[in-house]
Amino acid sequence: MANKPNPFDPASLTDSMKESAQQIWLAGLGAFSKAQQEGGKAFETLVKNGIDLQRKTQETAEAKLNEATQKMSGMASVINEKATGQWDKLETIFEDRVAKALHKMGVPSAEQLKVLMARIEALEKELQVKHKPTTAARKTKTT
Q1: What is the distance between the alpha carbons of residues 104 and 89, in angstroms, rounded to a whole number?
Q2: Residue 115 maps to a domain
Q3: 134 and 124 in contact (C-beta within 8 Å)?
Q4: Which carries the bigger pLDDT value, residue 96 or residue 5?
Q5: Which residues of 36-73 are buried (b: 16+ CB within 10 A; e: fewer)?
Q6: 109 contacts 102 by C-beta, under 8 angstroms
Q7: Range of 112's domain?
Q8: pLDDT tens readout for residues 87-115
């Protein structure tokens, strides 16, 4: 038995197309509804992910900033120590040169002045002892 081809029926084709279009329309509405429902959830998830990423970024930035601050502090300490050492050397060189110049001009050093002052004080005491009139010498002068 041979199957007869179905004769072309425009009315049944139109009904079939209407039904397919209706199903496509309903599928679109369903997808739109689902996107609206899950869109809020997706947005909340994206916000949560953004907050997590921002927190991690801030923590990383703070760690790097602290690391850089420590390195810079260490470098500043090293530079300060070197500068202080150089300043001390410069000060010593200056003091030596001033001392040499004063010595060439015949100006006594602080140590020499101390020795001289001690000698003057000793001589003054010695003179005071020698020049004190005795009690007998005072009596003869008054009579």
Answers
A1: 23
A2: yes
A3: no
A4: 96
A5: eeeeeeeeeeeeeeeeeeeeeeeeeeeeeeeeeeeeee
A6: yes
A7: 108-143
A8: 888 889 988 998 888 888 888 888 889 99
Number of domains, the chain: 2
Same domain, yes or no: 113 and 96 = no
Task: Report yes or no: 71 and 65 within 8 Å, Cβ to Cβ.
Answer: no
Q: Is residue 5 part of a domain?
A: no
* CB-CB contact of 108 with 116 (8 Å): yes
pTM over 0.90: no
Q: Are residues 55 and 74 in the same domain?
A: yes
Q: Is residue 13 part of a domain?
A: no
CA–CA distance from 30 to each of 17, 18, 26 (Å)? Answer: 20, 18, 6
